[in-house]
């Protein structure tokens, strides 16, 4: 039997009426710069810019991306199968994640974002394990929102999957590949945003009351990778994105997202349409889109960070 999280080797699920919650330890809190910032993103992730000026400001905050995205319509959810790896993290204050974003609003202070995927974050978890996560904000990452269940917001109903728990097994270079399946969709009646993990597990929901701009729909969907580059020693970090290898290496070597879909106004899954790509520096982390009959719309992404072309 496939066991998507390590704790499943001990228990398959929690007793009726309870949910699994990752324990927050004293050491977790001590790693945080401030207690009131524990479990929150310190810097904003990428929202595809319209001007070179915004490109510059995004590079300054240390976050780098290799993503595929759609915009220009109303989106009521998104889906993807995400290849799972254990990227190397150079500095403990850096992270590497692979996720999908549902976005509405702007970075002027009213951005609403719903996010889910996998991440390696020594600062948040105290280790280099690959873990399932969620995130949300309703004010551009200023005061609202958090990872997982570290503040009120996301309501978990599943007794089988633990947010923040280690994912197992992981993909190996040139070896077997493992994916996780994530779907987020909006309940057209209550307006809540629901998330499922795998084929049959409804994990929980973000209540409609959390959001303003996402009250109706998302205006952009993103899929892809993000890292923090703290520039250790005044050079680019060697923190890896995805598998740590470039998209050109292909299956079994480069990380991928497959079966990209969006949810339309009728609550049906549809192909995403006109996909765009973005990376701040393709010599560090890159992205390449594709389509075939087995995977539908997909892309390979990632890279090693520091190298001869990414000094």
UniProtKB/TrEMBL annotation:
PROSITE patterns, per database record: NEPROSIN_PEP_CD (PS52045)
Where are the coiled-coil regions? none
Lineage top rank: taxon:
Eukaryota
Tell me where in this chain the Neprosin PEP catalytic domain is found: 57-311
Q: Which Pfam families match?
A: Neprosin, Neprosin_AP
InterPro entries noted in UniProt: Glutamic_endopeptidase, Neprosin, Neprosin_propep
PANTHER family the record matches? OS07G0205500 PROTEIN, PROTEIN, PUTATIVE (DUF239)-RELATED-RELATED
Q: What is this protein called?
A: Neprosin PEP catalytic domain-containing protein
| Originating species | Ceratopteris richardii
Q: What is the lineage of its organism?
A: Eukaryota, Viridiplantae, Streptophyta, Embryophyta, Tracheophyta
């Amino acid at each position: 039997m496939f066991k998507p999280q390590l704790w499943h080797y001990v228990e398959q699920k929690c007793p009726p009426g309870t949910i699994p919650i990752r324990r927050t330890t004293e050491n977790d809190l001590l790693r945080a710069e401030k207690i009131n910032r524990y479990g929150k993103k310190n810097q904003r992730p990428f929202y595809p810019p319209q001007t070179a000026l915004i490109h510059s400001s995004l590079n300054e905050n240390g976050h780098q991306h290799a993503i595929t995205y759609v915009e220009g319509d109303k989106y009521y959810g998104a889906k993807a199968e995400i290849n799972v790896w254990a990227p190397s993290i150079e500095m403990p204050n850096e992270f590497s994640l692979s996720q999908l974003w549902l976005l509405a609003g702007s970075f002027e202070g009213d951005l609403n974002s719903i996010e889910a995927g996998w991440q390696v974050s020594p600062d948040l978890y105290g280790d280099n394990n690959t873990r399932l996560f969620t995130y949300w904000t309703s004010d551009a990452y200023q005061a609202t929102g958090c990872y997982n269940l570290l503040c009120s917001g996301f309501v978990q109903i599943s007794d089988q999957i633990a947010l923040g728990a280690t994912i197992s097994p992981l993909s190996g270079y040139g070896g077997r590949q493992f994916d996780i399946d994530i779907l987020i969709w909006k309940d057209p009646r209550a307006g809540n945003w629901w998330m499922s993990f795998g084929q049959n597990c409804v994990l929980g929901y973000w209540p409609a009351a959390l959001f303003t701009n996402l009250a109706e729909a998302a205006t952009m969907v993103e899929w892809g990778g993000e890292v923090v580059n703290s520039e250790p020693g005044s050079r680019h970090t060697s923190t890896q994105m995805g598998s740590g290898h470039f998209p050109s290496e292909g299956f079994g070597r480069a990380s991928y997202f497959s079966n990209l879909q969006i949810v339309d106004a009728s609550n049906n899954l549809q192909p995403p349409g006109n996909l765009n790509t973005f990376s701040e520096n393709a010599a560090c982390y890159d992205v390449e889109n594709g389509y075939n009959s087995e995977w539908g719309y997909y892309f390979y992404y990632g890279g090693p960070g520091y190298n001869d072309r990414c000094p």
